[in-house]
Inverse folding.
């Protein structure tokens, strides 16, 4: 091993898909934007297709093209309107596109191509989406056009993971907005991983699930304990040194040793997506022991305290995952907490162009 490995576990991904399919009657649309939350978009899509998944959501047209090149038979949903200059590609690559602005819809109507579209309503996120008041106008425009096929209606919740009450109000607003139209042939979708755990309203027949697919339970009301984490990150000890009490290690002299210490180095850093703010709270696992980070995370290396352990160069260092005896673990939630950020940011920053991605099937 040179630097580090990202292990992605096929059995766990397929287990999660089966588990989520058993949990909800909605069809799953797996969210694979940002390199499938760091898991590798190609691997994730191929593995999910084997599990019968037919819908994939992306944020960028380039991601949609990557996914389309893996299969002609699946549906790909672009979650926002791209630039009007990209219209031709949407048609060429047969991408379902989320729409909400009159200008974009008009540009589609006057183009020579046909499009499959999902009309998005803003029910409180206030990021993208048409206002409930403008819904009828856009709906009529779309359904009276010759080249637009309305495939779905959707919304997105701002506090699905923290506030069931507000999310329920958004659901009600959505339902009121679409109450006059016939939704029989449409995909009606709103849920992300969190709201999917409690929104049982029968009008919704598809859920756009990201984080839960990759094994992380997220809900203000119900933990999905049966999910299995798909990703582990491991590296190796690359240097070992004895340092004296009072010496500082790493940049900024941010950590002064309080005692004589054995300090190990591993070749992973913020350039690989292991975040800078992991120090001072962060730790790694070596030989079934937690080892505290010592000194600042650098671009390519971290330092940690192995005082009292019998360690050698090339010994395994667990950055994300469980110890071999399963007694200790470090989760994405832990790393996010050390860094005062969210799980999504940690995952989507992991760089599989610097760390080697290894696909395992056990
Ligand atoms: C529009 C939209 N739908 C669904 C999701 C999936 O969210 P989660 O990863 O919480 O399941 C996202 C994630 O950012 C999103 O932006």
């Amino acid at each position: 091993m040179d630097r580090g490995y990202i292990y992605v576990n096929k059995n766990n991904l397929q287990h999660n898909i089966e588990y989520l399919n058993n949990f909800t009657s909605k069809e799953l649309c797996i969210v694979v934007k940002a390199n499938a939350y760091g898991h590798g978009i190609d691997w994730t899509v191929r593995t999910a297709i084997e599990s019968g998944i037919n819908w994939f959501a992306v944020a960028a047209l380039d991601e949609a093209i990557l996914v389309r090149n893996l299969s002609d038979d699946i549906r790909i949903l672009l979650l926002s309107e791209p630039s009007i200059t990209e219209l031709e590609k949407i048609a060429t690559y047969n991408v379902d596109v989320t729409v909400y602005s009159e200008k974009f819809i008009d540009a589609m109507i006057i183009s020579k191509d046909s499009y499959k579209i999902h009309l998005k309503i803003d029910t409180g996120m206030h990021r993208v989406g048409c206002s409930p008041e403008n819904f009828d106008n856009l709906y009529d425009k779309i359904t009276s056009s010759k080249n637009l096929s309305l495939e779905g209606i959707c919304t997105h919740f701002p506090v699905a993971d923290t506030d069931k009450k507000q999310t329920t109000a958004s659901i009600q607003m959505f339902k009121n907005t679409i109450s006059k139209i016939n939704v029989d042939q449409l995909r009606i979708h709103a849920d992300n991983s969190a709201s999917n755990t409690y929104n049982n309203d029968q009008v919704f027949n598809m859920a756009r699930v990201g984080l839960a697919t990759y094994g992380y339970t997220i809900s203000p009301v119900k933990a999905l304990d049966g999910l299995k984490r798909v990703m582990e990150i491991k590296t190796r000890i690359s240097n070992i040194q004895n340092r004296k009490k009072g010496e500082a290690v790493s940049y900024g002299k941010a950590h002064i040793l309080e005692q004589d210490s054995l300090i190990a180095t591993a070749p992973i850093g913020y350039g690989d997506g292991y975040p800078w703010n992991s120090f001072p709270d962060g730790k790694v696992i070596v030989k079934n022991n937690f080892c505290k980070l010592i000194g600042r995370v650098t671009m390519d290396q971290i330092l940690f305290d192995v005082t009292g352990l019998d360690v050698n160069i090339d010994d395994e260092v667990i950055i994300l995952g469980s110890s071999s005896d399963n007694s200790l673990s470090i989760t994405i939630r832990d790393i996010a907490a050390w860094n005062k950020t969210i799980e999504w940011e940690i995952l989507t920053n992991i760089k599989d162009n610097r760390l080697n991605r290894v696909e395992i099937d056990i």
